[in-house]
Amino acid sequence: MKKQTSRLTIIALAVALNIVLGNLALFLRLPIYLDTVGTILAATLLGPVAGIITGLCSAIFTGVTSDLFSLYFAPVQLCVGLMAGILLHNKRTAWSLPLKALLVTLPGTLVASLITVLLFGGITSSGSSMLVQVLHGLGLNQTLSVFLVQIGTDYLDKFLAISIVISAIKALPRYRQIVS
């Protein structure tokens, strides 16, 4: 029972972290999102299923309360939770942080690019839409244009999120007692 309570507490904390950091990034108009730090934290500590649950709960809560568009992009949170859980939980791979960040980023960026093109015609509220239109105007496919622009900000976002999570876990060496 204590283990289940600890897991639910970590997931709830991770959801709150996603919501607070995501809204902070929106408010400050940062070129990154910070809305997956909690998803990556839960996935790293508890595995892919916890990452997926955290991401889905975060997207639903944010979509209902403050940013409707996060509902459309919920599949991105699912991709991030899955990939972070696979690559970071129990440190199954010895790959470098930049490579792990890239592998966590790529599936979500592909999904986000498809959502942006199919549902929003390649235009979003971010300032990067202008660059997407320039690339598209130069003859690139619109999906590829969105993907190329988005991969930069997504990679930076996930690299920073993974760095924060790894640093936090290293600062709390007794976390294994909580989740075990």
Automatic annotation (TrEMBL):
UniProtKB keywords: Membrane, Transmembrane, Transmembrane helix
Family annotation (InterPro entries): ECF_trnsprt_substrate-spec
Transmembrane segments: 6-28, 40-63, 69-89, 101-123
UniProt keyword annotation of Hydrolase present: no
Origin superkingdom: Bacteria
Name of the protein in its database record: ECF transporter S component
